Amino acid sequence: VKGGYPTFMDKEIHDQPKAVADTLLGRTDEQGNLQLDELRIDEAILRRIDKIIVVACGTAAYAGHVAKYAVEHWVRIPVEVELAHEFRYRDPVVNEKTLVVAISQSGETMDTIMAVRHAREQGSKVLAVVNTYGSTIARESDAVLYTHAGPEVAVASTKAFLAQITATYLLGLYLSQLRGTKYLDEVAGYLTELARLPEKIEQVLAREEEVRDIARSMRDVTSVLFLGRHVGYPVALEGALKLKELAYIHAEGFAAGELKHGPIALIDTGQPVIIVVPTPRRPTLHAKVVSNIQEVRARGAHTIVIAEEGDTDVEPYADVIIRIPATPTLMTPLVAVVPLQIFACELATAKGLDVDQPRNLAKSVTVE
Ligand code: BG6
User: Fold this and answer.
1) What pLDDT sits at residue 23?
2) Nearest-5° angle of CA 202, CA 206, CA 212?
3) Which of 69, 227, 319, 334 is surrounded by the fewest CB atoms within 10 Å?
4) 345/246 Cα distance (integer angstroms)
5) What 3-state DSSP class applies to 282?
6) What's the pLDDT at 28?
7) How far apart are CA 279 and CA 200, in angstroms?
């Protein structure tokens, strides 16, 4: 069942190229246009919506955070991302012009189910992005866009996260095609980029041992900070969550730009900081994050830098560099998160912990 891997988590990390490829599969017509037949929400309604609210918990919520960057850019309507349990018990502004997107691997997370029910009571259409066929959220929503990650057994989510980003990107491209905010050839260009991701994820996996060596050398750390900017920010949050869940190490993710507004006070000699660096082909984003690496390094941080192949600007300030293949900005979460998953998995393994069944956690939380 574990496909020759020591744990489900190891297997599921390696399943990721396929999870992305399978989620893309069969979603274009013969002309290459995006076809999301399963959407079953009237096109007239999808043309009319003026806001999207993503509701989810845990890793699924971080997939929503990533999606916000792409969907707003492509569809030009506001996307809010909210933890399902917070959404449910405040008084959110939702109506028939709101599309609520519920992201859930299991489709059984009670907090997310309650948010779905609340949204539908307010007259919103709910689109579920779920991995488990026939699950409660799938059944109770107006439409379902399935992620095809296959069964995810390890409690902490890995391949479902990549499949969720892929599916929400398809949704964004579909809406931009429908609403005419992107030309069809632009949509096709993004689909081509997405189709290249499985190969790029394989390239990251091929360097797994380097990441595991780094993790083993850090098995005694007590706190790790993660920094990212733009789509790298939710990647930093997810990297920190993986480390908490799997290795029980205090970890926090920050928006890199926020560092100077507070968190930099945490930096002391030897503090490990993992930085997700944007592609140098986005110089404004890139330069700012490189200077953040410089700032934490100058204050004694031990810097572990996730940077694109050929990015030499980071070299003077990096204690360790983990290379990822060149990828368009919006697609980078799908490659940049992989070393962070491997890092957390190996650190937990080095500490002798059960990575598939971390203490106190359940695969799907069916109570509020
Ligand atoms: C938590 C799991 O309980 O629920 C996480 O430990 C998961 O891994 C989160 O991301 C949300 O679960 P789901 O099934 O709604 O995606």
Assistant:
1) 96
2) 125
3) 319
4) 6
5) coil
6) 85
7) 14
pLDDT of 32:
76
**Buried/exposed 158-194: b ≥16 CB within 10 Å, e otherwise:** bbbbbbbbbbbbbbbbbbbbebebbeeeebbebbeeb
| 156 vs 242: CA distance, rounded Å | 7
How confident is the model at residue 169, as a pLDDT? 97
Element (H, E) at 72: helix 58-75
Check: complex ipTM more than 0.90: no
Using CB distances shorter than 6 Å, the residues near ligand 1 are: 57-60, 104-106, 109, 112, 155-157, 361-362, 364-365
What integer pLDDT is reported at residue 1 of this predicted model?
Answer: 81
CA distance 357 to 368: 21
Catalytic position from the list 2, 244, 288, 363? 363
344 CA → ligand 1 middle, Å? 17
Would residue 363 show up in a list of annotated catalytic residues for this protein? yes
Could you tell me the distance, in angstroms and rounded to a whole number, from the CA of residue 353 to the centre of ligand 1?
20
User: What are the residue ranges in the chain where pLDDT is below 70?
Assistant: none
Q: Supply the Cα-derived Rg of the chain in whole angstroms.
A: 20
Atom of ligand 1 nearest to the CA of 156: 8
Look at residue 102 and give its three-state secondary structure. Answer: strand
